Amino acid sequence: MLDSNFNAKLGDFGLAKLVDHENDAETMVAGTIGYMAPEYVTTAKASKESDVFSFGVVALEIACGRKPIDPHAEERKTKLVDWVWDLYGTGTLLEAADPSLGSNFVEEEMTCLMIVGLWCAHPDSKLRPSMKQAIQVLNSEASLPILPSNMPYVTYSALPHFSLYDLLSRVALRAFTSK
After folding, report:
1. Structural contact between residues 142 and 112, judged by C-beta atoms closer than 8 angstroms
2. Smaller CB count within 10 Å for the chain: N or C?
3. Reported pTM
4. 15-177: what fold?
């Protein structure tokens, strides 16, 4: 995917299909912060579910006209998925619609896109849809899911095989060497 200046927005979308999980001796987390599923960050194993998570974030980014993480936004709006889920829970979801659109959109379609985005970005990978299910809802071939009004938080029993410092160091090193 490219932005208006032809800069790559997603370079690792579909990563799960390209990785041989059985033969990888050492796996390193690769991806863009904000698009990476929580289980991928902690296990360093890409999956169909982690790809669905990334798709959900992109759907929300398109609907809201915002990046997944905006450190300059007011505190409650810093993390796109958290903010949109809060609005969903209070019944004010359309407040997240891209302000540059004004009111020039079909409310039902915008609502559908945002709810599918949240569903795909569900913190629990087992509760995310398949891509087929998500597309069926987007095409009005299936009903919208009913999500919990508060975003669930998932805890993982297995500790990652690397420290948070190691993860951040790898991300920073990758950003530095790609320039």
Report:
1. no
2. C
3. 0.73
4. Transferase(Phosphotransferase); domain 1 (1.10.510)
